[in-house]
Amino acid sequence: MGSIARTLANSISDTGTVASGVNFRNLVINGDMSIAQRGTSESSVTTGGYKTIDRWQNVGIFGTWTISQSTDVPSGQGFSSSFKMDCTTANASPSAGNQLHISQRIEGQNVQYLKKGTSSAESLTLSFWVKTNKTGTYQVNLRDKDNTRIIGQTYTVSSADTWEKKTITFAGDTTGTFGNDDGNSLECEWFLGAGSTYTGGAVPTSWEAESAGDRAAGLTVNLADNTANEWFITGVQLEVGSSATDFEFLPYDVNLQRCQRYYFDTASVVNGEAGSGLGGIFTFKAFNSNEAAGYNAFPVTMRTNPTITVTDNGGVDGKIHRFASGDVGSSVTFGNVSNSAVIACNETSTFTTGEPNIYGGRIRANAEL
């Protein structure tokens, strides 16, 4: 058993309840926003997806945004980074189906100890630090993706441009069990803006069958309504029980490995700096003058077989870089499993049969939920 798994196993008592003061009590990965393999900033964002900080997804964006890893953090709390949303093109009148929120998705096999769907279902407490110029009422939800159920609460930002800590407790759910697999079972979402499709119901303060109109029913703000608007979050912790404990800081390398289960970028590993410079070095062997192949092992086993893309050191998609002769790879293909990738490269009359060559390239493997 690996060190992470062993520590987690030792943290669960004989009754199946996570003990206090131990590692890995936080269901959220990278809640301190310290890992950003894809890069520290992305501008002109108009679509959802994983943009900068690992494990944090933007969903259903309207307006235009710069999304970044910021150094603006609550003073004296031990954090060095926060997740920042900065509106650069406003949309003050979203259409009915528009939504603006961030979320983190959690594997079902990581939440079995919550005992969901039984009479012993555990309550959960969510805590986080938030800062924004846009005061008002916001909504945060937990969504059971296996059984299409939801529970939510509102929180109020009282003071503009001031870090505030929020703590919200959600009751346990005695209906519907989580799948014991690597799929998306539990999702935590923070709404920042929404059209009428998502605001026409009532805040789901107890577990219920999910209704779209309830997901942002308590929201009184639209973060997209002015280019002066910005929103920061850090110190996110979701844990068993009815009270919040101090944020659980993990060593940087442990936090990185947990993120690499979902996304791995050789540029981050080689440089220690996301998204730039030398991506990785590996050996390709030529089978004939037209074909060569190389092997790259991932640092951790990924959640599932990832989608792989490769870029040479000059930024050319679908290419690798042979240091003796420049870019090669008119046809680059991948054979991959959850712990490694085999990269095959075709280039007419370029290779010498049996010859090993040193190549470089940025490999990105994506197994996000």
Features:
369 residues, mainly beta, Jelly Rolls, seven-stranded antiparallel sheet, 39% strand, globular, disordered N terminus
**Number of H/I helices:** 3
Overall tally of structural domains: 2
CATH architecture of the largest domain: Sandwich
Strand adjacency order, main sheet: 2-3-6-11-8-9-12
What is the H level of CATH, i.e. the homologous superfamily of the largest domain?
Galactose-binding domain-like
> Might you state the CATH topology name of the largest domain?
Jelly Rolls
Class inferred from helices and paired strands: mainly beta
Rounded to an integer in angstroms, the radius of gyration calculated over CA atoms is 22 Å
Mean pLDDT level: 88
CATH C-level of the largest domain: Mainly Beta
Alpha-carbon distance between the two ends: 24 Å
| Contiguous runs where pLDDT drops below 50 for at least 5 residues | 1-22, 272-277
- Overall outline: globular
Number of strands: 23
Largest sheet: 7 strands, antiparallel
Q: From N to C, what is the helix and strand string?
A: HEEEEEEEEEEEEEHEHEEEEEEEEE
Relative strand content:
35-45%
Binned, the helix content reads under 10%
